[in-house]
Write a structure and sequence with these properties.
The protein has 228 residues and is α/β, with parallel strands linked by helices. It has helices at residues 23-36, 51-61, 70-94, 105-115, 120-131, 146-159, 174-190, 204-218; strands at 12-17, 41-45, 98-102, 138-143, 195-199. It has a single domain (12-217), classed as P-loop containing nucleotide triphosphate hydrolases (Rossmann fold, 3-Layer(aba) Sandwich), CATH 3.40.50. 52% of the residues lie in helices and 12% in strands.
Length: 228
């Protein structure tokens, strides 16, 4: 009788950090690196990832929920996350496919919980409901001074010939973004087994290498050459 193939354990990796730190770029680069190691992986984001969650994302980022307050927004994010976990994250992990998400539950805790003043008990209850045990195996927190982050965003926008617009969170004052940065650092400090903070003030290639070093050390099956 033929033995079943040895399938790698599926891993769940999330990227967190403030606005403009380069999460989307580094998610793409990690996706490519995992592909070179024959890892089946899907990319997703929060809020979003499924049709229902994307609808909630649009509603929130357009500022239509702002008048409801941070508590109501936390509930909306949890509703989006519950659908995201049930319809995309859990099924892919169950079949052995890795999942990389641009933001996840730590963003709700940082934005609505710590910065918006939502009670920890509500945040914890919503998190328990939405995650249903699907805690990330690794969370990469990209850290950058908000002033540098926004200068980079402005530079990229001008180079692309686009107009600066920004969603409702990007339009907050600089001091708000400084508090947000500290919130992510505090979350990482409180979860050292899961979170790794990496400076995003280095160039994209160096940052990619730093992230790959963390990922390959955390998951030894990736060490060695492609297809290892």
């Amino acid at each position: 009788m033929l033995e079943a193939p040895n399938r790698r354990q599926a891993r769940f990796i999330t990227f967190e950090g403030g606005e403009g730190v380069g999460k989307s770029t580094q998610v793409r680069r990690l996706l490519a690196n995992l592909g070179r190691h024959a890892v089946e992986v899907v990319r997703t984001r929060e809020p979003g990832g499924t049709p229902k969650a994307e609808a909630i994302r649009s509603f929130i980022l357009q500022g239509r929920s702002e008048a409801w307050g941070a508590g109501a927004e936390a509930v909306l994010f949890a509703a989006a996350r519950l659908d995201h976990v049930n319809e995309l994250i859990a099924p892919n992990l169950a079949k052995g496919t890795w999942v990389i998400s641009d933001r996840f539950c730590d963003s709700t805790r940082a934005y609505q919980g710590l910065t918006g003043g939502v009670d920890d008990r509500l945040i914890n209850a919503l998190e328990d409901l939405a995650l249903d045990g699907h805690t990330p195996d690794l969370t990469i927190v990209l850290d950058m001074d908000p002033e540098i982050a926004f200068r980079r965003v402005e530079q990229r926008t001008l180079e692309d010939g686009l107009q600066l617009t920004g969603d409702r969170f990007e339009k907050e004052e600089l001091e708000w973004h400084r508090r947000l940065r500290q919130n992510f650092l505090d979350i990482a400090g409180n979860n050292p087994d899961r979170c790794v903070v990496i400076s995003a003030e280095q160039d994209e290639a160096a940052l990619e290498n730093a992230i790959w070093s963390v990922v390959s050390e955390r998951f030894p099956e990736l060490q060695g050459g492609p297809d290892a």
